[in-house]
Hints:
The chain has 322 residues and is mostly helical. The chain is built from 10 helices and no strands. The protein has helices at residues 7-41, 53-60, 65-78, 80-85, 91-98, 102-111, 119-172, 180-265, 270-299, 301-321. Helix 6 crosses helix 8 (180-265). The longest helix is centred in the last third of the chain and has 86 residues, at 180-265. It is elongated. The two termini are 23 Å apart. Mean pLDDT is 75; it is low at 172-176.
Amino acid sequence: xxxYITKRExxxxxxNRILANGKIVQTALIDMCKDLKEMxxxxxxxxxxxxxxxxYSEQACGIKQRQAYSYIAAYEKLGENYMEENxxxxxxKLELISQISSYERDEFLAENDVEEMSTRELKKQVEExxxxxxxxxxxxxxxxxxxxxxxxQIKDMQDSMVDSTLEESVDAVATVEPDPEMIKxxxxxxxxxxxxxxxxxxxxxxxxxxEQKAKVKEVTDSKEKxxxxxxxxxxxxxxxxxxxxxxxKQISEEKLQEALKSAKAANADEDVTAIRFLFTSLQxxxxxxxxxxxxxxxxxxxxxxKLSSVMKSTLNSIIESI
Length: 322
């Protein structure tokens, strides 16, 4: 009996290659960022006859200078692991996310669904978030500075009280015979009067210092609370995703084992059964890739075309090797 592959099985084969190459695209993106950084940092482009990294990236690689530096910046700030886990959202979004410091990045990602946002929307949110953080930092710095100035003002006033009191006392007894007891009495009286007059001013300044410290603490506590809440939300979301992935993997493995068991009982070829089962799984994953490619195309058609081109090239290579 002639062996042949059905059209459905052929579809699964193609789908499997698409999924495999989708992973290759993600890995290739990270490797390209890493290699561009090495080429720039070590000035390896000079060995290829280029005077500058900009000339190399545009002439040898066909990558515009700004885009090359975006790749490198995203890799440096986000790190290889983060880029690998989020390569599906595209280098443009990754570069925008990298503009937010690592200290606030979890909070930002918890507040914004970057996968569903367009590049323009994400850019706007990043700018607004950076402005908000910058204003908060400015408020903290201003409050601390004002508090320090008031504290120093109190200290200066207290230090100058004795000096000014002694000068007034000397003026008061300048025409009197230098009687030590009289001088001492005059100084004591002047100090008493000065303290009484300045007590209210000092208390007012102390109250202002206390108020400013309270403001600083309020802003600091608020910021710490926001950061803590964002981290907790991000951790909870990550744990849910991990649990879901584990569950899906277990279910898939159980179904495969059941299919193999049934094939064995029916005296069928277990390898063929396994392939058919994997084809079905690959079809589902291929649909997911198509869905994400459509989303990317709606936001950045050029990027979607590049990804599709890389996939097609890789698929052709796989076809030739089979």
